[in-house]
Design goal:
The strands form 2 sheets. Strands 2, 4, 5, 6, 9, 10 and 11 form a 7-stranded mixed sheet that branches. The chain is mostly beta strands. The chain has no helices and 11 strands.
Length: 117
């Protein structure tokens, strides 16, 4: 079992920056893929960014060039650095861990990011 806790969300002005963290517990996740998803008001949950166990990176077109995903396996933690934030980035951001062996997905409870224009 993996438990995930996101932190770092908050209220920021357009053009500002935030850094989200995802702390994992329960077991070592260094062999898992990690990702971030978000769900804006009245919208479905959407993919934001992912980093594989080999540290291959992938981003949605809407955040490419502005967001950076990373992980620190020694701390069992993932990060999402968000720059040049826009009002449309307002959403609850969820951390995801994908177990490549069992193919099970784990989710955190989310952290709210609100960007004021």
């Amino acid at each position: 079992q993996v438990q995930l806790v996101e932190s770092g969300g908050g209220l920021v002005q357009a053009g500002g920056s935030l850094r989200l963290s995802c702390a994992a517990s329960g077991r070592d996740i260094k062999f898992d893929d990690m990702g971030w998803f978000r769900q804006g008001p009245g919208k479905e949950r959407e993919f934001v960014a992912a980093i594989t166990r080999f540290e291959t990176l992938r981003y949605s077109d809407s955040v490419k060039g502005r967001f950076t995903i990373s992980r620190e396996n020694a701390k069992n933690t993932g990060y999402l650095e968000m720059n040049s934030l826009k009002s449309e980035d307002t959403a609850v951001y969820y951390c995801n861990v994908h177990d490549n062996w069992t193919r099970r997905d784990y989710w955190g409870r989310g952290t709210q990011v609100t960007v004021s224009s």
